[in-house]
Amino acid sequence: MDILAANTAPDAITRRAETLDTIAAVLPIDRRDKLTEILSDQDVETLRHLVNEGMGDNTLRALASDLGYLEAWCLAATGSSLPWPAPEALLLKFVAHHLWDPARREADPEHGMPGVVDRALRSGGLLRTVGPHAPATVGRRLANWSTLTKWRGLDGAFASPALKSAIRLAIRAAPRQRLRKSAKAVTSDVLAKLLATCGEHSLRDVRDRAILMVAFASGGRRRSEVASLRKEQLTVEAPVSDEHGGPLPSLSIHLGRTKNSGAGQDEVVYLTGRPVEALNAWLTAAKIESGSVFRAIDRWGNVSKRALDPKAVNDIVKHRVKMAGLEHGEFSAHGLRSGYLTEAANRGIPLPEAMEQSRHRSVQQASSYYNSATRRSGRASRML
Hints:
With 384 residues, this protein is mainly α. It has helices at 10-21, 32-38, 41-52, 57-78, 88-98, 102-107, 115-123, 135-151, 161-173, 188-196, 203-217, 223-227, 274-285, 310-323, 334-346, 351-358, 363-377; strands at residues 234-241, 247-256, 267-272, 295-297, 303-307. Belongs to the 'phage' integrase family.
């Protein structure tokens, strides 16, 4: 069965595509065309309403992506579009299809997600993971499902005891280690090795150096924030004096609303010294005076007018990791974020000062990097 058949009338697709173009900035770039086929007219109107309500861009991208996945899963699993509100039985089916015991699956092939559903989602490029989903992913999709239900003025069974119990028991039945988004942090020593792979003359080298330095020095910005950065967000500030009294270039980056900011709060971080010089070198070399800061470069050296895909930021980090002779699978773009706080902890920078730059809202999350640094260097870890 074609999981997209219910929504692929040519006129309907064209109409939805035109509507999606009006909110394109908040959709996952690599799945925009696929979402046009999957989402219903009502889904698109719901997303446009959320945009008009001023919800954060990253939150909307997650909502749009998860809505597309839920629609496709429901079509494959039940043969029908996603119902609103979803009955409790459908929510329990979603948990059963995504949180299951690999050991039980070996003895019982019908345990977990049915093969026909798995194949349908993979053929549509919507399912890439092997094995059960991470509990956090299932929890996020259920939370977004609940949010979209509420925005339609409806109630769901998301708080039902049966659903909570099913999730708890499923997680207990198949325990898995929680892995960091980047196995290792990109601290200053690692960053230096990555920067050493960036030459002086290639336009791609100039861009990648600026991406690495800006992402790290601005507090470990998320790859989506790096990819969506625009020239209009940059403000030149008065020079800052170095330890010898000499001037260092400085600028501020107005992030607007981020994942961790409150409503109406404009997040601002600062760059000083070498990162500013690297950024200016890229803007000059690429002749960028407005619009997206970091852009794709084709094989002939032409700079695109469109922003980089957030995934491309991760690809750039991994490419430089490989060039530096480091283990490709141990680092990712998120390593720049964790690396910033880890480096701040290693240098004894007070946690509140580091959080002002990283814009972490949770002291508990940010302090975990500081606690790890203290434990590694403390007496308790050097008993022998």
